[in-house]
Amino acid sequence: MIWSSINFYQRTIVLLTQISIFVISVGLIQKGNITIGELIALNGYAAMIFGPFVVLGRQWQTIQNGILALERVEKILELPTEEYENSKNTLNGNDFKGSVEFKNVFFAYKKNEPTVLKGINFKVNPGETVALVGESGVGKSTAMELVSGYYFPTKGGVLIDGYDTKDTSLKSIRQNIAIVPQEPVLFNDTVKHNIKYGSFKATDEEMKNAAKEAHADVFIEQFPKKYGQVVGERGIRLSVGQKQRIAIARAMLRNPKILILDEPTSALDAKTEKFITESLERLMEDKTTFVIAHRLSTVRKADKILVFKAGKVVEEGKHDDLIRIKDGVYKYLYEYQVGLH
Ligand SMILES: Nc1ncnc2c1ncn2[C@@H]1O[C@H](COP(=O)(O)OP(=O)(O)OP(=O)(O)O)[C@@H](O)[C@H]1O
Ligand SMILES: [Mg+2]
Fold first, then answer.
1. The domain boundary residue, chosen from 20, 47, 78
2. Which of 34, 79, 247, 280 could disulfide-pair with 184, CB 3.0 to 4.6 Å?
3. How far apart are CA 36 and CA 140, in angstroms?
4. Is residue 88 a part of any domain in this protein?
5. Local structure of residue 266 (DSSP, 8 states)
6. Does residue 224 fall inside a structural domain?
7. pTM
């Protein structure tokens, strides 16, 4: 708004000045003080002076934009650097088995914010599939952020293959984890590069296979530039379901030891969901998998179900055992979904 009014006033001032020069000059010509030739020359010189002033105004706007961007960059640069490499333990390729253990984990996002996780205990063996269920906001996604080392427990420990994430090289943990997040983040780049973000070493062939497995090829092939299509800032030009499929393709390409699926199919129609669920089940074979899902039908096959409530795991076991618990949380959630309440 300031800029548009500056623009307006600037132009008004220039115009008024030029008109007054003209009017005064006409008077001077009438008195015979200057010639018409001199008037035209004066007008030319005036334009030469005003031009740079207008440009100066525009440069001022550019400088302001620059200062603003600088402030934003500074905020990012001020964030503490993560310790990627220089940690005590490094878990490498074949040594990485994929067991995950939460030992009395307490967690709050910030010191004076409410505690989200209040003493979580569970152990997952390599290759097992674990489902996390519970109402919205109980801390399911938060627990998964602790597995990937985005955050660390305020008390207790998260152990991967027996090593505390706090003392382990984040690079080695993250190289072996793939996450299909609740809200996939895409970069303003081509579809191809966005999928290859899962594994930079992958060939185009592997990338296209992953897209096919994730059922993403059906919409990618319809783009005018196909895999060369740019997806817009944060993937704005794709629907949520399309973004989810790109995120799944990324995970397929990565072929990790630990797979985290945070409602990976929540925005898909029933038919696409069925196709992808089949691909995901193939991907989940021999991987430690965490599945978060509100639709409990996807949860039934899990080796273990963890039921979250008020920051704690209140029930743990297989579907058939959990629905037998009298007044159980899982039993209630399940019956609610199948329409018994
Ligand atoms: N980055 C964050 N900073 C501060 N608080 C957060 C942050 N992310 C989540 N929370 C808070 O932590 C709590 C747990 O959130 P979380 O996302 O883990 O829930 P959820 O179980 O995954 O829910 P949903 O089923 O809706 O995805 C919520 O009360 C939320 O407000
Ligand atoms: Mg969540």
1. 78
2. 247
3. 83
4. no
5. T
6. yes
7. 0.76
